[in-house]
Design brief:
Layout: E1 4-13, E2 18-27, H1 34-44, E3 65-68, E4 71-74, E5 78-79, E6 85-89, E7 96-98, E8 101-102, E9 117-118
Parallel strand pairs: 1-6, 5-9
Antiparallel strand pairs: 1-2, 3-4, 3-6, 7-8
Length: about 120
């Protein structure tokens, strides 16, 4: 294991319709959830990264759902402490507005809270 996460985020620019993977090297200190990593990148490395930032952060609202290493998860509850490489993508099946923000349409996301999930190296 290294002292940094290699974070690859699928980005989408609606103005140019360009899709690409952006790679960030993020120090692991104090970052245990995917959402922590996204906020760290946004606050310290790339303020152009778009993801839902108005969240409950407790697993109730489901607004933070994304695909992490191929699994649909809540980024506010998903622990990544045993990973070195993390790939974050928008949810499949929804129109992408920008980067990790998708249009949920009229779906209701006030579902029952989910349990904390650990994305492990064997879960690809």
């Amino acid at each position: 294991m290294t002292d940094k996460y290699q974070v690859r985020i699928k980005r989408y620019n609606p103005h140019t319709e360009a899709e690409y993977l952006a790679t960030y090297l993020v120090r692991k200190e104090g970052l245990y959830r995917v959402l922590d990593i996204l906020f760290h990148i946004y606050d310290n490395m790339d303020p152009s990264l778009d993801f839902r930032r108005e969240l409950c952060r407790e697993g109730f609202c489901h607004s933070c759902e994304a695909k992490v290493n191929g699994k649909r998860v809540l980024t506010c509850l998903t622990l990544v402490n045993r990973l070195d490489a993390i790939r974050i993508e928008p949810l499949e099946g929804y129109p992408v507005i920008r980067d990790l923000v998708v249009d949920f349409g009229k779906e209701i996301h006030m579902l029952e809270p989910k349990r904390r999930i650990v994305v492990d190296e064997g879960d690809h």
